[in-house]
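Long-time lurker. I teach an intro course on protein structure, and each term I like to show students one example going from raw sequence to a predicted 3D structure in token notation. This year I'd like something fresh instead of my usual example. Would anyone be willing to generate the tokens for the chain below so I can use it in lecture? Attribution to the forum is fine with me.
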Amino acid sequence: MTAAHVLIQIKDKKDFGKDYYGKEKRRVVIGIIPDDGNDGTQVVFRYFAKIIAKDKKMEGEKCCQIDACVLQITSRMKCDVDGNGDSCGEQEEHVIMTSNMENEKLKEMKILKGNCEINQPVHFIGFNQGGEGLRAAGEVMNRNFDFAKGYVIASKIEGNGATTKYSLCPVAETVVYSRFFVGHSGGPCINIEGKVIGMVCRNDPFEKNRCYLVPCADLRYLHAQAKSTLKNRRGLPKDKIKMKTI
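-- Reply from a regular --
Happy to contribute to a lecture. Here you go:
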């Protein structure tokens, strides 16, 4: 699962709602942190994936109320790729069936049931691409994850219900006091128990230390939608389909 705006056009009339910004023959590359071979913080690219669930309002009402989408891993590269991932497209790949995903032994993050608490300490997990340090922004891809800490200042704020075509119009958001960095979009925000309370989607245009999350209720909704999609495609019972937030 990641932020919709990372992979889908949600801010402009041209190609609005189209996966991969309307580009043909595109796929998602997913990285993982291997159990050995590095310091435990650096990602290598291993999988290809595709979008299987997103806000249905994009197609009907031409607006986006949930800035998130669910991905399905479809294949694994023969060899892990490092660097900027330039050679991902050259890799031989092996198809992964849904029923065989457990063999990949991916670790699962639990989504919080209910709403988070006000003043609750939280952490973002992301990959800061802002260029701080020795490199300028965009010069190289940062593959080392980092934490940004903060606390919840509003567990759920609701919009006025109005929708504007060809734009993001969230119905509800969770507000966190924390610094937001480029590259954190789509990353999980977790509480001290390690449960996901929301997904990072945008910063506040006026207050740099305040940012907004897709609430966990919306994440659960999209998970259910993805499970239903897979059930219809594969003919599998829902209890045999496991979703992982990775």
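Some talking points for your students: The CA atoms of residues 7 and 20 lie 5 Å apart. The first strand starts at residue 28 and ends at 32.
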